[in-house]
């Protein structure tokens, strides 16, 4: 028997039933699909049997080609067509499902300019259920063993599909310094994927970003090892451990992908073993220990070895040392890309290298079609294939794909659920906003005193510029811009809007209009920055990365593939800033962007400066909440902001032996350091006690809110290992906590540092807490640490 009889009439949408009636009308008998010819149930079809037994039973019935097909992950969106309300499978579906026997699809629900799926022909939260049911039904009916398909979807800041919730991008999420909040975010995006028929979410991204010229800074959690690990773990737990709608998290990218040569996406990484073990790898180890079920390799190479073919990393370290039990998937075409690295002459050789290294799933699905031939040639054993396939099948049974392959249309995402997720997106955006400057307390703006406001700039009312890369098309009005948010916040004020200029276009056509709008207003809100918004005229690499271009008509200056060689505001933005300053009006600058930019001009000219990163669909409301005092900002930088590109790399914790004394033209200090952020109130750090226990070091910090506003403080604890066996940084973040204080409130905030966080790598896979003195420092940023205590461990 292929599959247990399934009652479908109440489960499948009209398009599925239509397909079945047209293609195989004889299989429907009183609403049941029955593939059982002899009424005998195989072990793998019996949900009462242990998963291990079901996996082995199915594996024993599979041919070599069926096994290797389970290791393919191909494009999902070409497999369906939607015209109006009608959804059908394309000829590509037969090729992928039947001929290739593919086990997983990527981006079945994805919509964007690369896929050419739009609001008109793509899948929203309603049609996705019909389409995924149709697809799974086709897999079950048309393949010999009826193995359902894994559906993997992009989830860097929400499910990348039409009608879902667009949260702030990763660097904004990191600026919240709030793991509990991000755990809720992970659970929300998991629900949106699972209720549409998906099973795997690609995210979070935990690559450390040490060069802001890199195009993908926006996706990750910044420059720090500890912060990235804690936030990454929280999202993984939210995605995988929520009881109702869990999905498999695929963390990206293993490894050193953000430690780029020249800021190039996919550039080579250069580092020694100690740096790799102590800086790059700990966040990945942390998510593995949290139960991660899938990990994606990276495009880059380290010391000449492409990460997708690095056996020492994937098998020896990840699997054998860390005991990772999930499956490893290549980044898109990164197995094929080993021919470009010059370590493989063709796709078959590339497949051999990647498989022997420990990659179980080929995203792109081209190279691993050579696996059967490699087995027949004796280069790979069928036993090795079996072990890889078992991981995929085990998770399919664990996620109940065989027992519950279809989604009930009655369980569609509700307006209430989506509204709750929008509210969460607004909260994440509010907590992510970093107040960089507030001269003379120009903020918050007083709603009852301001008669007119100029809202100016290329990002003041451009919806897609709010969202970042990996974003689906948005229905009209679904993205709240800064202009929208200001209008809602002060409905009785006169709002004078002018774009002024674009992000990159050098036209000065709108500058006069912007000056006029500013001249007749009491205060100016100037919204500058960058954009990762793709448009349907853009060109793309085979991997989906945008091709970097000097085309000034595009706003896109960030997002995958858009590396930069400068960090200045592009186009006429600095001219617009200077013009606004010349008016003499109070000037509030809001930055919306995907990477740190060199904004000394903003720091000098603005009376107040906010960094909102890409704040997502509710960003305009969140920014207005902060501008008008409905929310007291407490975001903290997760990445240092350089003064200029010549300082790079700039990060808070270089090795103590590094020469960071400065240059002929200026100092080596960042414009704003890691962990920095202001508030509408102020906090004093009054006392610290550091108490070692058997497994932890307990830190108790007395803090007082000295101002007149309630607000959050992000308490940060850094540690210096005074004398060590090899050079270490002056300080490393080892604990943090976002804590709320009422105006005038004083309390003791307790934090714990796991002693394992203080261990150093000894070589040969060994770690040790080296006895000696440790300096514990507490404060509000990496450069503001008023409390220090030295202990001996």
UniProtKB/TrEMBL annotation:
Coiled coil: none
Keyword Acetylation: no
Signal peptide: 1-20
SUPFAM superfamilies per the UniProt record, alphabetical: (Trans)glycosidases, Beta-D-glucan exohydrolase, C-terminal domain
Organism of origin: Parabacteroides absconsus
Lineage: Bacteria, Pseudomonadati, Bacteroidota, Bacteroidia, Bacteroidales
Alphabetical UniProt keywords: Hydrolase, Signal
Domain Fibronectin type III-like, chain residue ranges per copy: 713-782
UniProt name for this protein: Glycoside hydrolase family 3 N-terminal domain-containing protein
Record GO terms (molecular function): hydrolase activity
